[in-house]
Amino acid sequence: MDRVNEYSCLCPPAFTGTQCELDVDECSVRPSLCHNGATCTNSHGSYSCICVNGWAGLDCSVNIDDCAGAACFNGATCIDRVGSFFCQCTYGKTGLLCHLDDACTSNPCHEGAICDTSPINGSFTCSCATGYKGLDCSEDIDECEQGSSPSLINSPTKDQARYGTTHLVDFLGVYARAKDLSTDIICEDSIHTESESSVSSKYR
């Protein structure tokens, strides 16, 4: 632009200076150019955004659909996340891609145990209830043999599991007599089993 004894230059947005010889650092002037944790890098006359995993676009504002190239098996539903995806398995299947059989569907755990499935190989792990042990929690722990006092709280739970919920176990006269503090405990139990109806009428 001509003036009296001087001139001025109308610079494009990416340059400044008397003769537009200076590059404008867009990253410093406008720090919000790049989104979602991207890194802004200035270049001569321009800038670029280096996106983090899961994002794309000039300003890193586009979420990449990770399900587009995902491989969920056996009718599983793919759920897109940022930089990853999740396969929601159908019943009886497990694993990161729902490609494994869920071993817990066959109810391998006993006596009120909790069954957990490994997403790596589909195998099961049983978390046993109090008083039971073993791979499938089917082995009863003999508390007397271990030298511990019988529990009046835990014992009915174990016997109710054996005889079903239609019976109540009424523990009467349970006591433990120790021959010596350093020897095994001798347990003498008097167990009386009644039906729910008879117990209910007894305490009315």
From TrEMBL:
Molecular function per GO? calcium ion binding
- Looking at the Swiss-Prot or TrEMBL record, what is one Pfam family this protein matches? hEGF
Q: Does the keyword Endoplasmic reticulum apply?
A: no
- Quick check: keyword Disulfide bond in the entry? yes
Q: Which InterPro entries match?
A: EGF, EGF-like_Ca-bd_dom, EGF-like_CS, EGF-type_Asp/Asn_hydroxyl_site, EGF_Ca-bd_CS, Notch/Slit_guidance, NOTCH1_EGF-like
PROSITE patterns on file: ASX_HYDROXYL (PS00010), EGF_1 (PS00022), EGF_2 (PS01186), EGF_3 (PS50026), EGF_CA (PS01187)
Q: Which UniProt keywords apply?
A: Disulfide bond, EGF-like domain, Glycoprotein, Receptor, Repeat, Signal
Look up the domain of life of the source.
Eukaryota
Which BP terms from GO are recorded? axon guidance; Notch signaling pathway
- Span of domain EGF-like: 1-21, 23-61, 63-99, 100-138
Q: Which PANTHER family does the UniProt entry name for this protein? A: NEUROGENIC LOCUS NOTCH HOMOLOG PROTEIN 1, SLIT HOMOLOG
Family indicated by similarity: Belongs to the NOTCH family.
- Give the protein's recorded name: Neurogenic locus Notch protein
State the species of origin: Camponotus floridanus (Florida carpenter ant)
